[in-house]
Design a protein that fits this description.
By secondary structure, the chain is mostly beta strands. The protein contains 2 helices and 22 strands. Strand 5 and strand 6 form a beta hairpin.
Length: 325
């Protein structure tokens, strides 16, 4: 319902490295007549598709750069300010352990609705590589962007290690000479990291709804959850909490519940669990089973209004849960 949010974008990565982006215009919030509704349905037909291939990609890990970030990921080479427009950017994991940033050529917050079918099918975009970071490491198995901090990105790797990268100059993000540096390297997990998420509202601010993202929550095939304060100024460890054996098998997905200090995990043990970052020692706030209790739960997500969450399992079942007590 937010008319400022721009068009709907779907990004997919295939195992052979083919990246596809689909765009369709956002539906206006108010339609007064049946004719307007019919016209809008026609406009909502997919009107542009962009695709390109990244041969060195793992084919499994990709992330969309949040449009709220003000500029493109910093390039290692000099580039003019004019070139640093706000285009949709994706981060893709490569086989050599690096991350590649690609500019799709598609402007974010694009409100243009094409008037013809030909215009819907065509879009003048030239995807191009902007930058690559973190080469020479273990294969990346998960990627997540920070929700608000400019171009801060966390990656989980097959060996259980986690790297957090950010621009080296926070005072001038996205500048022509800005570079990326590794802020943290965590080694607490010992099996692949399949999912990472940033907190919506940390326990330090009492869950007041600010999207601070101060905490990084990690889930692994070892069944453990670790929570890190990535912006801690402490010279010692930045791990603030841990939940050993949170699941009895692989943790496959994690997500934060917006405007709260809670987050959700799901796993191969068929469980969906809700946790609170300020009450992790008390155990899960809620635990849900899939139908039959034997299906691996591959994905979980929470609605933006924090009222519902949804899960999907390997039996093809989608389940919706209420987050309201």
């Amino acid at each position: 319902e937010d008319t400022r949010s721009g068009d709907e974008v779907v990004v997919a990565l295939r195992l052979d490295g083919l990246v596809r982006l689909w765009i369709r215009p956002q539906c206006p919030p108010y339609l007064t007549t049946e004719e307007e509704q019919q016209q809008e349905d026609e406009n909502l037909i997919q009107y542009s598709t962009v695709e390109f291939k990244v041969k060195e990609s793992t084919g499994t890990s990709i992330a969309i750069r949040p449009p709220s970030h003000s500029a493109l990921p910093p390039s290692s080479s000099n580039s003019s300010k004019k070139q640093r427009i706000q285009n949709l950017t994706v981060a893709i994991a490569n086989l050599n352990g690096s991350i590649s940033f690609y500019d799709s050529g598609i402007p974010v917050h694009n409100h243009h609705i094409p008037e013809s079918q030909d215009e819907r099918q065509q879009v003048e975009c030239e995807p191009k590589l902007i930058n690559s970071i973190g080469s020479g490491g273990v294969i990346i198995t998960s990627i997540v962007y920070h929700p608000s901090q400019h171009d801060t990105i966390a990656v989980g790797r097959k060996d259980g290690t986690i790297d957090v990268y950010a621009p080296s100059n926070y005072e001038s993000p996205g500048g022509a000479t800005a570079a990326v540096k590794r802020l943290h390297h965590f080694t607490n997990h010992f099996k692949p990291i399949r999912s990472l998420t940033f907190s919506s509202s940390s326990s330090s601010n009492g869950g007041n709804g600010s999207n601070d993202g101060a905490l990084l929550i990690t889930g692994s095939d070892d069944g453990h959850i670790f929570i890190y304060d990535i912006f801690s100024r402490s010279t010692s460890t930045t791990m603030v909490s841990s939940i050993p054996n949170a699941h009895t098998s692989w943790i496959l997905s994690t997500c934060s519940i917006p405007n709260s200090s809670r987050f959700v995990t799901c796993g191969a043990d068929g469980k969906i669990k809700v946790w609170d970052t300020s009450l992790v020692n008390a155990g899960a706030v809620h635990t849900f089973d899939t139908v039959g209790g034997k299906n691996m739960v591959w994905g979980v997500s929470a609605s933006y209004d924090s009222r519902k969450m949804i899960s999907c399992d390997d039996n093809g079942m989608i389940q919706v849960y209420s987050c309201e007590e």
